[in-house]
Each structure stands twice: as structure tokens, then as C-alpha cells.
Write a structure and sequence with these properties.
nine-stranded mixed sheet; 3 helices; globular
Length: 802
Amino acid sequence: MSFLYLAGALACAPVCTLPADTASSAAYDGARGELHASIPRLDDPEVRIDGRLDEPAWETASVLTGFTQYKPVEGVAASERTEVRVFYTESDLYLGIRAFAADPSRIRSTLAERDQITQDDHVRIFLDTFHDRRRAFAFYVNPLGIQQDGVYSDGRGVNFSPDFIFHSRGRLTPDGYEVEVRIPLKSFKFPAGQEQTWGLNVIRVIPATGAEESWAPRARNEASDLARSGTLRGIRDLRPGKLFEVNPTLTARREGIREESGFVRGDPEPDMGVNVKYGVTSELTFDATVNPDFSQVEADADQITVNERFALSLAEKRPFFLEGADLFSTSESLVYTRAIVDPAVGARLTGKVGALNLAYLGAVDDAPLNSPARYAPEAERAVFHVGRVRRDVGSQGSTVGALATSRQVGDAFNRVAAVDARIRFGEVYTFGAQAGGSWTRGWAPSEAGRDSTPAGAPVATEDRAAHIAHVFLDRTARRWGYIVTLRDVPEDFRTETGFVRRLGITELNGHNRFTRYGAPGGLVQRVDLRSSANRVFPGRGFWEGNGPAEGSTSMRVEAELRGNHSLELGWSRAFYTLDPRSYAGYSLPAAGGGFVTGDALIGPSPRMGGLDGVTLELESSYFRTVDAGLGLQWRETPIFAEGTRGEERIVEGEVALRPTGALRLDASLRRSVLYRASDGSRYSDALVPRVRAEYQLSRAVAVRGLAQYSVEEVDVLRAPDGRAYLRDGEPFRVRRGNLPAWDQPQLNPLRLDLLFSYRPSPGTMVFLGYGREVVDEESFRFGGLAPRVDGVFFKVSYLFRN
């Protein structure tokens, strides 16, 4: 028995028990390539998670040292010393972090809400339990132990939507900060077997300098961020216990709405639901929900849509759909869970068995029952099914997979099937392909600006079938990278479970990057020169040898400066060919009497070329309590609603303030003014200011308020000679995605949300909120702010976990 082992055993007794083969405080230096860490198992460590690494168990843990920098300068020694101690028990994984700082006064540390710490100093733990270098559980902690978590998926980054139960506490010290973390093994999936090898990397983020420093050295000449992760070895005889969770919820709401007779409030609407999670094995998890609560407690951020031709997608925020969402993600967005509007029941199975990733999602949606009778005459529910299987291939992170989806309402259905592959080769290259088809009965296409039929409404139509294809080649290297993509989406392709923004096109895209690095400590830390080109071919034009209908070319320079400042300058040139079908309902008085309509207004295929644009963006995270960004853009663009040439000026700004450790203030503003190039008259003026304030009374208790004002002023549509277009004999304007709105008043809604939340852990929470939307009929007059809708919302839930 060695002296070190004897000393470790004596120091640990009597509060922990060491197995016979455990070494004391083995150290692994990442900078020297010591990336295969054997970690000790302690049967009774008696560690209290309080942010103090003062228990004897930490002295016997394996130590990860030798961090190196990835940003802003790759490969140099870390600017600050970081030490991570690791051990495990039969049911938990423990990590203790000591983060040293030359100037502790510059450490950013706030008492924040969960998943809101990326602007703080923090440590990121990536745990690849299947050691496949494709997917990892992500656990982030700031200096106070506030948590952020999610799932890292290779090629797509981290999805922070899932929440896992783990325990963490931290504290500031005279030398920096310390954090303790305990992760129950039942909180994540891992393979069956007596002995485990898990992938691990730990990354420290230092906002004061913009540095990211990593135990396992990271490099841009790797196609995967997990490719160079280290490993935890010798993990054996785990007994995490069977996962079983029951999460009942009770919600109640009372809503009001303005009607012709005045503002009317409805009766309170209580509702109950339950979510169940069961660990079938350590590899597979089954979830079920009955009458789930899918209420959002905060409004989606508005997007300016006055000159948008196509629909915009919104991020999923509903808890049931979030876990395992990355498994459904493919090159084309064929799974868009916000298409499930009002589910009554749902079920999900996710996990990995050997080299196979498996995922299934099913739901019964009551949304068609709430649709107008002419769109759902038989008042039947929609039934969703989504199935996904993906297999790991080789050792470089390659995968092949298949996806099938179905949505059915009565006899109407839409079904999609697709296969896909991501093949890595030569260390820096990734080839990807996806091909599939859709089969549809009972749905007709509904495009913005074509008609007023709600998307997804079943109507009489013939059966149709169509394919979809997506191919790309990606080179990700330290100094030179590019990606080339080809997409083919015919007009008849349809997905009622996904989101494909534009149909009837073949699209080519290319992006190129050259990078030059500065010296450590220099003014310019990194410069990227980027260029891109895009070409869009309507119908089958690409395959028939026709030219593109629209496209763009752009170049930009991005510079990262010392002190965590960045600067970006860009130029672009674009061209468009307008679609005469979009103007079929327009008319102008003819010189000899009557009206000129349709194609005669703008010609059979009007083309606008030489549309230039310039952008400037500035960002800074230098100051301890302030982050700020400013973007300016000027561009020439078609005014799509009227088929004329325009000039758009855009200003975007964001400011994040952290005046105290408990108060957060975030403000953003986007302004877009669009002028007609022919005479300089203003076509539209859109403005969306948004302010969010949050005060964290304690780790679990917070209050927050949000105010969002949306202004979209749009002129009546005019021909190039200045005359107003007519529709149904009257001048008209379009707003909100080109829907006819000549008979609608200007609303200028002001949205106010207030929320009290108590959330000690995922699944256990109390929310009490109030939302109100008022109408400012004349923008920025703020007089007679008549309420349009309001509502009080209450939610309580508790997570029972065995």
C-alpha cells in the first residue's frame, strides 16, 4: 500500500469508504493530453452541497487541470487557473470546481432564474454517457450555483429547453469562486452494463475577457465539439434506482375580451392534468401526459412582418415537447411541435439502445374541434404520430436515420417519410443528405397572400404526393471553412407536422469563411472574412436548365477585439423576380374606362436587380454590469405587397443591465422604415420596443414584468406612378403577412405581463400572472388605451419522484 493511498484513507475516515483500488487525488492535465481520467468511487462520502469543498471526500477525488483556451485565441494556455474534482457513488456523480481569478472583482455572478446565466461567469459540464461523441447532457453552473441545463446535439448545439434535476451550490472566494455539483444518475440516460466509460469535457466561460477555456483542448479543425472530449473511466456497479415521476398540475385562468357590447370577462376556468415519466431501463424513458398544461406565462417576442412574404416559425416553449426534441431534428424541419395546438393526451418514448437512437411522439389534438365548422365540419380531433430512428456509424460521429410523421383528421391525412445521413470524413468534412416524400388527402395549400384559409384546415382536394430533398457538404477547419447546400421542395409537398417555410423551389446556398488569429493580448484577437451566395429557382426550373428567379451575394468582416468587443461590417447585393399571381386581385382605373388588372399591372415576370445593402453591427460585454449591441442596416428591397422598388432602413439595439446581483433589466428595440424608391414616400414604419425586468428575491422566488409595444403603420398600396391600387373598388393596405386588411383599424398593441414565480426545482412550481393587451389607435399617443384582452393565470404543480 502506497503512502499516498494510506494518507487518503486516513483523511477520509470515518466519513467515506474507499474501494481497494482507489488512488488518492490522481491528477489529469488536459494541456498535456492526459484526457482519460479514472475516477474513484466513494460509498459514503457525506458531502453536503453548500459550495465549500472542505469535506475529506474531495481530497480523494480525481483532479482535472491544465485548461487551454478556445476563444478568443485557440490553443494557448488558459488565462485563469481552473481545477475540477470528480468522484462518484452508486447513485450520483459529484464535481467540485475551483475557479481562480487574478481580479475577482470582475467576476459576474447574479442570483438569476434557471437557464438565464450565460452572461455570467459560469462552468459548462458536457457528459457524453454513451461515449458516442454525438450527443451529451449539458449542465451549466454560475459562481452561486444557479443552473442552466439542456442537451448538446452534434451539429446543432445545445437545446436548453429540457430541465434535469441536479443539485449545485456556489460561493465567491477571495481567489475566485467554488461550486459543488451533485448529479443523480437517474436524471440522465446511460448504457446498461457493469462498467461504463463516459465522455466528459468541462469549459469555463469568462465574460470579462470573452474567454472560453477547456479541460479537453478544443479545435476548429474538428467537425464535432465532442470529438476531442476526455473520458471518465472505471465507472462500475451503478445502482441509480428506477426512475418514476408523477407531476400533477392545476391551472386556472380568467380571461376578458372586448366585444361590441363592451369589455366582457368570462368565468374562471380551472383545469387539471398530470405528467408521468418512467425509466423503462437506464437507456429508455417513457413519458405520458393527460390534459397537459401548455400555457405560456410570457408573450412571444413580436417579429416585424410588414414586408414578409412567408410564414415565420416560433420557438417551442411547452415542457412536454422539449425533452428529446433534438432527436427529431433533421436538415429539413419535418417535426414542428407547435403544429400540435391543443393536445388532450400525449405519449413519448426516447432513448438509445446500442447504436440506435429511438424516439416516438404521439398526441391527440383538440384544435380542429375549435375551428370554424366549414374547416372541420365533422368536428373530429387530429391525431399525430412521429417516429424517429437514428443509427451511429463509425467512430467519427456519422449517423444514418429515418423519420415518419402522420396527422389525420377524419378521412383527411398528411403523411411524410424521409431518410437521412450525416457522414464525417477527413476530420473536417461532413456530408449530409435527406430525402423523403409526402402523401396528402383532404388538405389544400394555404400560403400567405394567396387566400384566407387557415393553414392546416382540411378542405376538399385531390390526393397528392411529392418529394423533398436536402444535400450539403460542410468543411469546418481552423482557418478555412465552407458549407454548400442544395434543397428541392416541389409545390405539392406538404407537411402538417413540420415547418417548411417555402414551397415550389429549388435552392442553392454557399457560405465560405477565412479566419486569421491575433496574438494573445493583442487588440484584434480574431478576424473572420465571410462570403455567401444564394440562388432560388421556381418550380422545376433548376432541373430544366432555367435561370434563378432570385438570389443574393454578400460579404462581411467580423472582428473580435480585446476586452470582449466585436465589430461586423457587411455588404450584399440581391435580385428578385416577382410572381404576377400575387397581384391577381389588384386593379387600377384604365385610361379609356374600366380597370387594368392582374399581369397587366406589373408585367408577366418583372425582375428587380442591383439591390444593394450595407450592415454594421457592434457588441460589447466588457463592463461588469452592462452588455450592449447595436445593428444598423440599409438595403434596397422590393416592396413585395405592391411590386415596387423600395429602400429599407433598420436599427436594432439591445441592452442588458445587471445593476445588482438580484436585478436584471433587458431592453430591445427594432425599427424598420421602408420608403418607395420612385418618389421617396413612406410605405411602412414598424417599431417593436420590448422591456423585461426581473428581480430574484431568492434562488427559488422571482417576480418579473414585461412590456412590449408593436407599431406597424402601412400606407395604402400604390402603383409605380403613385396611384392607389384598388381591391373590391376601394384602396387597400396589407399588414401582418400580406393578409387583406383595408377594413381593419390600426391596432398598435401594447402588451403588459406580470408574473410571480416560485420554482425550487424542475416540475415543482407556483405561477401567478396577469397579462393585458391594450390598443393605441394612434401610435405613441397613449390616450384612451382601451383594453383588448386580459387574463389572470394561476398554476401550481409538484413533482413526485421516487
